[in-house]
Amino acid sequence: MSIQPVIPRETRADEIDLVELFHKLWQQKLLIAGCTLAVTLCAAAYAFLSTPSYEVQSVLRPAPLKELDELNSTGVYSLTPEDALKRVGSALESYSTRAEFFRNNPELFANLKGINKSLEQRFEAFNAESFSLIQPDSKRTDNLSDFVGLKLVYPETLDGVEILNGIVQQAIIDERQRVALDMEGVIQNRLNKIERQMAAARASYEAKKEAAIAKLTEDDKLQRAILQDELKALRTELRTRRQNRIAQLDEAISIAKALGITKPTNPTSLGDADNAGGQGNVFRTEVINQQFPLHFMGTEALEAERAALLKRKSDDYTEPKIALIQNKLQMLEHNRQVEMMQSRDNEDLFLAKLSEMREEAARLRSINLDLNQLNLVRIDRPAVKPLNPIKPKKLLIVSLSMVMGFMLGVCVAFLRVVFQRKN
User: Fold this and answer.
1) 411 lies in which domain range?
2) Looking at the structure, do residues 209 and 354 belong to the same domain, yes or no?
3) Could you tell me which of 370, 292, 295, 420 has the C-alpha nearest to residue 20?
4) Of 68, 83, 175, 196, which sits most exposed with the smallest number of CB within 10 A?
5) DSSP secondary structure string, 89-146?
6) Could you read off the pLDDT of 340-382 as tens digits, one per residue?
């Protein structure tokens, strides 16, 4: 015979019988159902009455290389498809691009909601909350090519497809304009550089030409001075010779007069004249290798030569070298090379590299690309109208609300059971 333990009455009172608890909760099934229905209705009201939000996105990829070939072939501006994609991606991320689109299309944002806020303030809040840039994950290696995109979450009151596609087009247009301005600036800078180089080449040419003219002129002046000095020295020498000849003639005349020589004679003839009375006719032949003294010329010849020398005004004709010097001086009066250099009409023709500079300048000015048709990127995925909103998720909300409402009803019923037992 087994003995059953005796449980005190106080202990049995505090214990909860699960079967009894379930029975008590079942008795409050209407309360639980009411709570479940109330929560479910509130959640359903929110799910069906709140404004749906939709999500659209546009994805851009690098443009084909041929689209940028004309731009790169100019040799002025270089842009790879990857660089073009990055530039457009930066424009998509830029607030200024979105703000410009907003200013150009305010009617698309007229239905933005905001209490006590201006349209600009509502757009700033919308921009901060609704736009996000799509980029490839740098940690992943399975990306076949670069891409960039823009995602927009928008309420049903807005046309998100038109807004997103418009902003993408705005970014592409803005970047085209930047490329055009960059290219225009590069071309203008190169033209300015060529102009400076041409001006420097002209200045250098002018300086070299002036230096060459100065050198030629100086050489001619120096040559003339040397020739004039030589001519002066020759004339002085000739004048000295003439004076010395006159002095010799004076001395010879005085000797001839003392000897009584009036006609040209020689020593033999003079001796024969003294012995002429004792001798007959004698013919002699003399071979003398020395010049006779000047007084044997006789006073008549000597005085005639002296008179001619005294009347002479110039000795130039007696020296052939003077004619040569005068000829050289005459040639130095005009430097034809200097005259030709000074009479050049178009001096640019004589600049060595000026033709190359002009050719490059003409090539730069002839660059006229229509960048309005330049495809910087390829729109791989334009924004299209979504089929379903991303929120609110009605089925999920209603399902969760039913579970939460049932749990709330059970909790309320359980609390009632506990309080009733204590009382």
Assistant:
1) 27-50+393-418
2) yes
3) 420
4) 196
5) HHHHH-HHHHHHHHHH-GGGGTT---TT--HHHHHHHHHHHHEEEE---TT-S---S-
6) 888 888 877 777 788 888 888 999 888 888 888 888 899 988 9
